[in-house]
Amino acid sequence: MPNTPHRTRLSIGVDKHDILGVLAFARGVHTKTSANTTTFTALPVSLAALLGQITDLDASQQVVTSTKAKGTAADRDRKRDVLWSSLELIEAYGQSLCDASPEQAATIAEMCGFKVSAVGAHAKAILAATLTATPGTAKLHANASLLVASGKGTSKARIFLWRYTTDGGKTFISVDGTPVAEIVIPNLPLGTTVGFQVCAKDADAQGEWSQTVNLFVH
Questions:
Q1: Rounded to the nearest 5°, which phi and psi values hold at 47?
Q2: What is the three-class DSSP state of 102?
Q3: Which residues of the chain have pLDDT under 70?
């Protein structure tokens, strides 16, 4: 039976009711796509319109928190829905690019600021990242059975190495290795899309770094 191709799926990666989270995520999408206009040549929502929606929601949220006047929350939620719809359109556009160039899907996801929610309908993900209840803290879990260090199998004693990026993969920050395939990383920058990677290392060699898994930290 032929192997099922892996598919990188994009997601907004923040709860719709988390207004500050939505604002921060949308700003990240605007910043990322603005920096990569040669890749995203057919955005379904103009960058100017997206920025205007972000500004409108931010202003409405400030009114809600400062006055708590009747009707302000409903007005804010309407503007949130407009921005959310735009993010869904951009997400779908980004997904179409990922599907057209699956080998570049992880890079495309990073370039437009969206989270990678799953890889492959029948494939186990090598790395999963989730936020904990503590702001700025992420928990990572690697699939140890899929990580090979020296190419001599997974039975050798190994440690798991971790690293993350806050600038789309230009630079990485290393984290201390662990003897188990999971780690909690605190003090991550809030309002930032952080990309995580993992690899295995044994006495003979270090394996390749995994595909980046993005997580919007708030």
A1: -65, -35
A2: helix
A3: 1-7, 117-124, 149-157
Residue 56: both structure tokens together: 């409108």
| Residue with the two structure tokens 């980004």 | 94
**R_g of the chain computed on alpha carbons:** 19
- Identify whether residues 104 and 150 lie together within a single domain: no
Residues contacting 85, CB < 8 A, separation 6+: none
Same domain, 95 and 167: no
The set of residues, in sequence order, having a beta carbon less than 8 Å from that of 170 and lying 6+ positions away, is none
Mind listing the pLDDT tens digit for each residue in 149-163? 665 554 566 899 999
Q: How many residues does the chain have?
A: 218
Q: Identify whether 86 is part of a domain.
A: yes
Give CA–CA dist 78/158, Å, rounded. 52
Q: Longest Cα pair distance anywhere in the chain, in angstroms?
A: 66
Distance CA 84, CA 147 (A): 37
Residue 60's CB: how many other CB atoms inside 10 A? 20
Q: What is the pTM of this model?
A: 0.54
Whether residues 102 and 83 share a domain: the answer is yes
CB 163 within 8 A of CB 175: yes
Nearest to 214 by CA among 5, 12, 31: 12
Q: How far apart are the C-alpha atoms of 188 and 135, rounded to whole Å?
A: 8
